[in-house]
Specification:
two-stranded antiparallel sheet; mainly alpha; single chain
Length: 298
């Protein structure tokens, strides 16, 4: 039971990263590689702050601000520096690695005997795994609501229009460069926040923990889209959260089959590749019709 609860909690917290990635990858239509630098940057800022006695809520907020900064750097390199977005993200990600080493002072810093959001009196008294579920659920619900509200504002609609058709958006008087910078800031802000929360939940920050995070975020998005289609924008955000939880269960099942945790990233890449190919298999083998017939069959 605790294993299932822990998996749900992990899925909810990682869903924050997936929601951030969804904004840049799906809505803004930008392949942002900054993710793999932003995630450990948020974790490093949060853990370093906690080690120096900063309040856990403030430390968590700082991880979000750290993400905003990395998003702004990539956005400025892309829009003002005219560097291709893929390269701009890689440059930022590479630079952040050294920044993380300076912040942490070494490659890995633990949070043993330091207060975190998860060590509060209420959460500490909950059964195993329920603290991450509680924090993850609250964070995911609040972020889905805030993002949905933002996307329905005039500014949010300009943001969506920039991703849908940049030329049309520009002809309507929308400053698409500013929209891209704003989008990358919000996206990376959420990714930095997820880094801070996961570092607190795991009890440490590591400069290398960003490797593979973009695959995890994309897997959550793709799984959500494969299982839930033709949804409203708000429902799609919820589908991303559900996709993140389902992805964690898929990994749990694979690991229960006896695979080593050393194969974790390889398995993540394989699962994402399979999810990306599902629409192809579905069209080729008419999987959806076959499944529907199987369900309807008495």
């Amino acid at each position: 039971m605790s294993l299932i609860t822990s998996t749900i909690g992990q899925g909810l917290i990682w869903a924050i990263l997936a929601l951030g990635l969804y904004l840049s990858f799906r809505i803004l239509d930008i392949a942002d590689m900054t993710v793999e630098g932003t995630f450990p940057f948020g974790a490093a800022v949060c853990v370093s702050s906690l080690v120096h006695g900063v309040n856990p809520w403030v430390a968590t907020l700082l991880s979000f601000i750290a993400g905003l900064i990395t998003g702004a750097v990539t956005g400025l390199l892309y829009t003002k520096g005219k560097i291709p977005v893929l390269l701009a993200g890689i440059l930022t990600m590479t630079g952040i690695y050294s920044v993380n080493l300076h912040i942490l002072g070494k490659a890995n810093v633990g949070l043993l005997n330091h207060a975190t959001l998860f060590s509060g009196k209420f959460l500490a008294n909950l059964p195993d795994g329920f603290a991450s579920v509680t924090v993850g659920l609250i964070a995911a619900v609040v972020i889905v609501i805030l993002v949905a509200l933002f996307l329905n504002t005039e500014l949010g609609q300009s943001f969506i229009a920039t991703g849908d058709n940049e030329k049309m958006a520009r002809s309507l008087g929308i400053n698409t460069d500013n929209m891209k910078i704003l989008g990358l800031m919000i996206s990376n802000g959420l990714i930095g926040l997820s880094g801070g929360l996961i570092a607190q939940n795991s009890g440490y920050a590591d400069v290398n923990q960003g490797i593979g995070t973009i695959v995890i975020g994309l897997a959550a998005i793709i799984i959500g889209e494969v299982f839930y289609r033709n949804l409203s924008l708000t429902a799609r955000l919820i589908a991303v959260v559900v996709g993140s939880i389902l992805y964690r269960f898929v990994l749990l099942i694979v690991l229960q089959l006896g695979f080593s945790t050393n194969d974790f990233k390889l398995l993540s890449a394989i699962i994402l590749a399979i999810c990306l190919m599902l629409p192809l298999f579905e069209n080729k083998f008419h999987l959806r019709k076959s499944i529907k017939k199987g369900v309807e069959k008495p």
